[in-house]
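Fill in residues.
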């Protein structure tokens, strides 16, 4: 059986190559091709001999070269591109490239599906199938790096399908790998991990002593409403989540972003805005308001623009740093899980 080498460190790669009868220096050459030049086929690595290429093809695989792109969508404004990827075991995940004025960011998935069952999210419609490996997470970034070369992705957000804190070791392993100088050399300050509020994961991340950005999916500050929207609230009540996130902010020196989806007549009242302000006052926090995409079958509607602006003004009046998220990729089902769910329905 062939050995997958994508995501191995230089030392691990060297060990595999020597065991296969290759010279040590071939490992550093291949490593450069993979992570600095985004070349994933041994035949295209021009400083390798034909004999070594034959050995490499016989014994090893490189994940990005074997991934099948099931669906590829580009937004009408050209700023967002979404891929539905078929993994080596036949499962599928989504990943999204976003072009900003400061460069490119990628929203990566951390699991196939999701177990959180949030009422407004398509990722959990079929539950969580499995965790992704660190290599599968890194691969999502490098597929886009190859597409936009010689430019490269400068930011990564772990906000795609899945709950990152339930796949903690693989997610942090992938981020640490991307941070390596001999890989993408991406700053930890350009990385964001988004969680529904898995407190043990937040606490572990605080102990890492690396300045990764933390985002918390909050979405309501009334206990019954949040539990209805996010069943995880029963196990990790939101006041305790906010307390854990604040400890993370103090430990990392990074402000925590609270994601808050605005749903008409559900969590968008002036009272909700004031309650949110009360919980976050004097915290190292900012709020990202997300107008809901309509889901008629669940009774979810987007508030009026006037209602959204009123909510924002109340937060700002209370000196809470808040913004309304700029929508990207709305016309290509770019929200978590939408493309995968649509593809499964059509099969």
């Amino acid at each position: 059986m062939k050995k997958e080498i994508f995501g191995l460190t230089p030392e691990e790669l060297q060990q595999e190559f020597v065991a296969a009868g290759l010279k040590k220096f071939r490992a550093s050459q291949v490593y450069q091709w993979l992570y600095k030049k985004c070349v994933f086929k041994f035949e295209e690595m021009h400083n390798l001999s034909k004999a070594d290429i034959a050995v490499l093809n016989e014994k090893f695989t490189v994940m990005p070269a074997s991934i099948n792109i099931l669906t590829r969508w580009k937004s009408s404004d050209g700023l967002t591109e979404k891929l539905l990827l078929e993994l080596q075991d036949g499962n599928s995940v989504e990943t999204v490239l976003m072009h900003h004025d400061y460069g490119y960011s990628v929203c990566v998935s951390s699991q196939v599906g999701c177990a959180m069952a949030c009422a407004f999210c398509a990722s959990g419609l079929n539950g969580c199938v499995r965790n992704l490996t660190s290599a599968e997470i890194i691969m999502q970034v490098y597929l886009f790096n190859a597409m936009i070369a010689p430019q490269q992705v400068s930011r990564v957000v772990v906000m795609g399908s899945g709950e990152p804190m339930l796949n903690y070791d693989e997610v942090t392993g992938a981020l640490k790998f991307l941070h390596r100088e001999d890989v993408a050399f991406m700053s930890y300050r350009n990385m964001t991990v988004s969680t529904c509020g898995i407190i043990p994961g937040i606490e572990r991340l605080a102990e890492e002593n690396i300045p990764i950005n933390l985002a918390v999916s909050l979405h309501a500050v009334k206990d019954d409403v949040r539990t209805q929207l996010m069943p995880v609230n029963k196990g990790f009540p939101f006041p305790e989540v906010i307390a854990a996130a604040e400890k993370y902010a103090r430990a990392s020196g990074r402000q925590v972003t609270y994601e808050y989806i605005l749903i008409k007549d559900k969590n968008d009242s002036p009272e909700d805005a004031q309650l949110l302000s009360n919980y976050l006052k004097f915290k190292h926090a900012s709020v990202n308001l997300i107008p809901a995409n309509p889901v008629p079958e669940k009774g979810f509607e987007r508030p009026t623009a006037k209602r959204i602006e009123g909510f924002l003004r109340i937060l700002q009046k209370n000196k809470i740093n808040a913004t309304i998220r700029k929508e990207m990729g709305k016309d290509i089902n770019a929200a978590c899980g939408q493309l995968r769910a649509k593809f499964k329905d059509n099969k």
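The chain has a mean pLDDT of 93.
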